[in-house]
Structure formats: C-alpha cells, structure tokens
Amino acid sequence: MHRTFYQYLMTQRNPDSTEAVAEFANNAFFDQSFPKQSQDFHEVSQYLELNAGYLPSMTIFDDAWQAYLASEA
C-alpha cells in the first residue's frame, strides 16, 4: 500500500453528494485529529469508534476500507 487510508478517503470527497462515503470523507476532512498517516485498519477503526460522531455507521467505514484495499491492489 502506498497511500494512507486518509489519502484514499480524500479522493471520495464531494460536497454536493449525499452518498455515505462522500459524506464520511467530507467530515473526515474537517476532523483535525483523524489519523492521517495510518494504513492500519485497527488504528483507524478504533479512532472512528471513539471519536467520530459524524460517522452514523461503522459499515460505511468498512465499505470504504474495502474500496481502499482494492484501490491499492
């Protein structure tokens, strides 16, 4: 993997979209504590579970993580 999850997620930003992953990316962009350098599923997952009130469901993260892995393959 070359990109961090955050770098991948930023490619999904779209302020005009109501898609769940785009909204996740838009909100993560404004989250100054997001683990931007991480490529570790557990680190990012734990951070989101404890700190990301803007993420309505961890399923959105799981889907985004799978897309991230596919993009890095």
UniProtKB/TrEMBL annotation:
InterPro entries associated with the record: UPF0346, YozE_SAM-like, YozE_SAM-like_sf
Protein origin, superkingdom: Bacteria
Pfam family, one: YozE_SAM_like
Signal peptide per UniProt: none
Domain called YozE SAM-like: residue spans: 4-69
HAMAP family: UPF0346 (MF_01538)
Family the UniProt entry places it in: Belongs to the UPF0346 family.
Protein name stated in the entry: UPF0346 protein ACFP3T_11925
